[in-house]
């Protein structure tokens, strides 16, 4: 019993706030994980929606380019993609700026690189989820919208997009879970999220277990909460369908 009390007291000291503990750092890192995941998710969904539309309605060239994008991103390990973007992104941007005579070096911060990398990765998976949802929508509904005088964008906004969101939500929820786990990989470029602060704290105290198990618990808490949010969103978008059935 005394050993358990001593262990709890030691853990409380490790995760106390201020200079003596790591509690405030872990809270900030959890916030960074959520912020990074959210930004990358939004970016990935936008990229995925554009790529999905090009795959469905684009010409041969655009469809081919989107196919290359999704194949390459899904076929290359996520960590390698992050490394390639981290070490090659700034060089490519500076080379492009040099063409226009801009010699001042351009430098992206670690957070922007993390969002861009994870967003591109999730965008490839979102593309296939959204493309599948678009193709399920009956073509007769699109023709009916045009018959009522709707132009192309109005048909997309009022008929295609709402149903695409409803049909794609379960798959997009799974992609959100993948993004949460992929944020741990961004620690290699210096973003102070949960995995990064766990590594720093473990090296500093030489007690890795308390910090890594705490990071795992925080990831599970975020995952559980976000899963409930996606289920509520799915129920919200399914209301009219249930009533019609």
Describe the structure.
This protein has 245 residues and is mostly helical. It has 10 helices and no strands. The protein has helices at residues 2-14, 23-57, 60-75, 78-99, 110-136, 139-147, 152-182, 194-205, 208-237, 239-244. The N and C termini lie far apart (59 Å).
How is the secondary structure organized here?
Blueprint: H1 2-14, H2 23-57, H3 60-75, H4 78-99, H5 110-136, H6 139-147, H7 152-182, H8 194-205, H9 208-237, H10 239-244
Helix pairs in contact: 2-3, 2-5, 2-7, 2-8, 3-5, 4-5, 5-7, 6-7, 7-9, 8-9
In short:
Keywords: Cell inner membrane, Cell membrane, Membrane, Transmembrane, Transmembrane helix, Transport. This protein is mainly α.
Q: In the CATH hierarchy, what is the class?
A: Mainly Alpha
Give the uncertain stretches in residue-range form: none
User: Count the strands?
Assistant: 0
For the residues shown, what is the average pLDDT?
Answer: 86
CATH superfamily label: MetI-like
The CATH architecture category equals: Orthogonal Bundle
């Amino acid at each position: 019993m005394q050993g358990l009390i001593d262990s709890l007291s030691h853990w409380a000291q490790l995760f106390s706030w201020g200079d003596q503990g790591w509690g405030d750092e872990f809270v900030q890192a959890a916030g960074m994980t959520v912020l990074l995941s959210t930004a990358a998710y939004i970016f990935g969904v936008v990229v995925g929606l554009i790529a999905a539309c090009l795959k469905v309605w684009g010409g041969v060239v655009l469809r081919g380019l989107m196919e290359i994008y999704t194949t390459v991103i899904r076929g290359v390990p996520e960590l390698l993609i992050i490394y390639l973007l981290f070490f090659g992104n700034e060089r490519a941007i500076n080379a492009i700026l040099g063409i226009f005579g801009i010699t001042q070096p351009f430098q992206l911060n670690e957070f922007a690189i993390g969002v861009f990398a994870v967003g591109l990765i999730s965008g490839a998976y979102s593309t296939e989820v959204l493309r599948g949802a678009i193709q399920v929508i009956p073509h007769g509904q699109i023709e009916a919208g045009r018959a009522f005088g709707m132009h192309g964008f109005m048909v997309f906004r009022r008929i295609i997009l709402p149903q695409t969101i409803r049909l794609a939500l379960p798959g997009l929820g799974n992609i959100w879970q993948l993004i949460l786990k992929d944020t741990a990989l961004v620690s290699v470029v210096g973003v102070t999220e949960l995995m990064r602060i766990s590594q720093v704290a473990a090296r500093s105290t030489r007690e890795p277990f308390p910090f890594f198990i705490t990071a795992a618990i925080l990831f599970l808490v975020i995952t559980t909460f976000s899963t409930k949010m996606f289920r509520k969103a799915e129920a919200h978008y399914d209301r009219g369908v249930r009533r019609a059935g």
